[in-house]
Amino acid sequence: MMKNIKMVIEYDGTDFCGWQYQPNERTVQGEVEHALKQLTSENIRIIGAGRTDQGVHAFGQVANFHTSSSLELAKIRKALNSLTGNDIYIKQIFKVNDDFHGRYSAQYKVYEYNIVLQPSPFKLRYNWYVGHPLDLSKMQKAKGCLVGQRNFKYFSAENDKDNTFCILHSISLTEHNSRIIIQIKGDRFLRKMVRGIVGFLHDVGRGHYKPEQTQDVLDGKIRDLFFAPPQGLFLVEVKY
């Protein structure tokens, strides 16, 4: 009997070529699917909530897959954690309804981006080090123009996509101990969209753009934005 299985996955994206399977490249999806093949002898395709880019991390990536294996869920989880590398960890595993879909059933996702303002070799793997001052008050003004339903075509790497409208429910920006955390909650995200938003907010903070020019980016009057590097970005949560 076929079962639909949901997993919550944490991973360090540094040494992966992103989430999505690629022949001859190490990806998160590829690693988990290879482990499932070893475990069940089935050719299983897992469906992730989001296709994180190369170097992007996750605390709460969600994926589902269908299997006819009779193995207990606890044994599947334990086996997957032993068959995948140390940079992947299956945190939770559940049986779900047949109509559950890792991507299309999601109501919203939460991403977090981390910036550090002081250099530290121990932080560079998971943060973007910025060596110049940023005006957070200007960044706060700019982010307010992005909340709601907007066309994020020019904040992303999907300029040729037909539907580039997304709904951002909230953007928070906080600073503590020389660390800036930008958290973005939305119904969907285009490729590199979060990094495009963070890159623009950074450029506002350093005075390259004014906060009121946010609408000019949305309207396509300002293009070719700087994308923040991937290592500071985490997929934190997917809500269903």
Overview of this protein structure:
The structure is a single chain. By secondary structure, the protein is α+β, with helices and mostly antiparallel strands. It has two domains: 94 residues, 2-Layer Sandwich (Alpha-Beta Plaits), CATH 3.30.70; 132 residues, Alpha-Beta Plaits (2-Layer Sandwich).
The named CATH superfamily of the largest domain:
Pseudouridine synthase I, catalytic domain, C-terminal subdomain
Helical element count?
5
Strand content: 25-35%
Please identify the structural class as seen in this structure. Answer: alpha+beta
Total domain units? 2
Highest-level CATH class of the largest domain:
Alpha Beta
Helix content: 10-25%
How would you spell out the order of helices and strands? EHEEHEEEHEEEHHE
The Rg value, from CA coordinates, equals 19 Å
Major beta sheet summary: 10 strands, mixed
Give the strand tally: 10
Mean pLDDT across residues: 96
Principal-axes shape call: globular
Q: Outline the low-pLDDT stretches.
A: none
Short description:
The protein is built from 5 helices and 10 strands, in the order E-H-E-E-H-E-E-E-H-E-E-E-H-H-E. It is α+β, with helices and mostly antiparallel strands.
Task: Based on the model shown, name its key terms.
10-stranded mixed β-sheet, 5 helices, alpha+beta, Alpha-Beta Plaits, 2 domains, globular, 240 residues
How do the strands and helices of this protein lay out in sequence?
Blueprint: E1 3-11, H1 28-40, E2 47-48, E3 57-67, H2 73-83, E4 88-96, E5 108-116, E6 128-129, H3 136-143, E7 148-151, E8 165-176, E9 179-186, H4 193-205, H5 214-218, E10 233-239
Parallel strand pairs: 3-10, 5-6
Antiparallel strand pairs: 1-3, 1-4, 2-3, 5-9, 5-10, 7-8, 8-9
Helix pairs in contact: 1-2, 3-4
